[in-house]
Amino acid sequence: MFGRFGQACLAGLWLLCTPLLAADPHKSDLQADLARVAPGLNPQALEHALAAMQCAVNHGAAPARRLAVIDYSLPSSQQRLWLFDLQRKRVLLHDFVAHGRESGENFAERFSNVLGSHQTSLGLFRTAESYSGKHGYSLRMDGLEPGINDLARERAIVIHGAGYVHPRWVQKHGRIGRSLGCPAVRPEVARMVVDQLKGGQFLFAWHADQRWLQRSAALDCRPQQLASLR
After folding, report:
1. pTM for the full predicted model
2. Which pLDDT score, from 0 to 100, does residue 225 have?
3. Which of 59, 138, 164, 181 has the most Cβ atoms closer than 10 angstroms to its Cβ?
């Protein structure tokens, strides 16, 4: 499947100088190193995240220093957010993250790009500017996949802290609280997450959802269909 992703090495861009998607036992150093420091992350989720990111970078997006991967196939009662430092190849944070209230209870099962759906969107996002709003210090994102997540800004899908993202909710309700579609995080880590991701980093929301997997322009590397790669 992944042979169609380019393995070009662009001069001066460290991220692109190894084929991220080579099959075992020839995985790139980056993929192998990230898998080593995040053993609980689904290998397919990591591989897809790196594939989508490399597709974007190969076709005009500036290389990122950090990457967040959310595995929405895991229940909200588990830590399913990984924040990677790509240069140092280490995990900066492994923590809880919410999904939209209309996406499901403990498990996210339904996904949408529709205004007012209160569902989570999957796929590749480019982070943008931080701001202070009703949820405090928050981070705007732009979805790069048309029809999948490209209405993220219009839907106000942002990273923000929320008190319902806490292990105590799991003890009481069997899950953490749910958002209106935002990947909300614990208030205690919100500022760190926003500061580490703001200004043109990548976030990749993954799920073994066959409809999305078959439609994703980032995974299929159709750069002409990706949203702006500024």
Report:
1. 0.87
2. 85
3. 181
